[in-house]
Amino acid sequence: MSSNILLSQLSLLIQETLQDSFAYKRFWVIAEVINHSFYRQKGFHYFDLVEREGRNLKNQTKAASGNGNIITKISAVAWSTGASRIKAFENETAQIFTNDIEVLAEVSVDYHPVYGLKLTLLDIDPRFTLGKQEQQRQATIERLLNENPDYVWRNSEGKVQTFNQELEMPIVIQRIAIVSSRNAAGYEDFLHSLEDNPFHYKFIIDGFFTTVQGEQNAPALAATLEDVAEAAHQKGVDYDAVVIIRGGGSGTDLLLFDRYEIAAAVAACPFPVLAGIGHQKNESITDMMAHTSLKTPTKVAEYIIQHNRTFEQELLTSQQSAIIYAQQMLAASKQELTQLRAAVLFQSQSLLYQHKQSLITWKNMFAQRPVQLISARKNELFHKISTLRLHNRNFIKLHQSNIDNMIRLFRMASPENLLQRGFALIRHNNNFVSSGRHFKKGDLVDIIMVDAEISTTVNSKKIPDGKPFDL
């Protein structure tokens, strides 16, 4: 029988044996992270690496993280070197190093008499995790295609297309629903850029606030998107656009927007979705489902302002074209009248000359004829001259009347004449309006008449039932 030894001696023997076998050796291992803790003050990570039943290195398949029995478990730690590699891993993959993720890590084997066997993480391969993420993204896209054929499909070119992308963007974006975190920096950036626009456009904004960080909040964010449609139904209005804003979080928060629940809700949203959740390098599945995807909340605001500006410029161009056309018509009519006057004058002079010549000829021919014949011819000539002058005046009067009518029509269409005829202009919030649909009781409006401007308050509103008002 061997002699007895102290526990410390046995521990030292184990330590020496492990050092002889594993000193200066590094191993790349595939394992799942559990029991993770991060001590921010020191910058160290403590966790366990485990392997579950069903893992196969040849086909790289296993049950989903967190499922299956654990067949191997070793404590692990990442000191400053490993922690810096974890930080780089998070930045590159947008994946937080936390529980229930599978990683490919380089480790060394250490043993301490008190703390026992432990693996020290030295490096972590982001390519392994990126491959896993891409597999999950593709699986999510296929699920969207299979379970939502009315809202997600592939077009003739094989590109993913959605119901939301098929929606027509209103010519003016004014009523906006914002889905964001109330305290998100991106939310403040969006409001500032939108409301301080150089064209003084006004917007109606409804906020739907929720958490936009953390994959576990995907169901809540999807439910908030559904709340937008419900709120629009209850109010009896349509939103011109729904804006999703993430800004202010870390890059790892983008994984939330690869979740099936959010992507499905965006694809089926009845209003055009503008996604401002992007990253300069990454495109989330939510970006793929949305009507329009932009990189930042500020870019979304700029898109909306430019969209409205385009409509305004087209309107101003049409107005200018109408004015030019009217001026051209008036100038053409004046030119036509001038030409007609010249033609009538020329024809009159020519006719008078012809009759004068004829009279001279007759006078010479019938110098010896009785005075009565000469008098008759004179009367006939005077009658023709009177008829010609009358015809000339009527001709000029007719065309002058046409010109006067055109000028009168242009003048009648001016705002001053409309006011003189009893019409009034309605102004609300410094904007002239033609529809009372959005007025509500208590709104302050200005009524501009021909000789006064009246400020009043809306006490009631009547919507016609299809029949015209009795004016």
Number of helices: 11
In CATH terms, what is the architecture of the largest domain?
A: 3-Layer(aba) Sandwich
Q: Specify the structural class.
A: alpha/beta
User: What's the N-to-C terminus distance?
Assistant: 120 Å
Report the helical percentage. Answer: 40-55%
Shape, please?
A: rod-shaped
User: What is the number of independent domains?
Assistant: 4
Largest sheet: 5 strands, mixed, barrel
Q: Compute the number of strand runs.
A: 16
Structure description:
The chain is α/β, with parallel strands linked by helices and 471 residues long. The protein has four domains: 118 residues, OB fold (Dihydrolipoamide Acetyltransferase, E2P), CATH 2.40.50; 160 residues, Rossmann fold (3-Layer(aba) Sandwich); 81 residues; 58 residues, no CATH class. A five-stranded mixed barrel has the order 1-2-3-5-4. Strands 9-8-10-11-12 form a five-stranded parallel beta sheet. Helix 5 packs parallel to helix 9 and helix 9 runs antiparallel to helix 10. The relative contact order is 0.06. The mean pLDDT is 85.
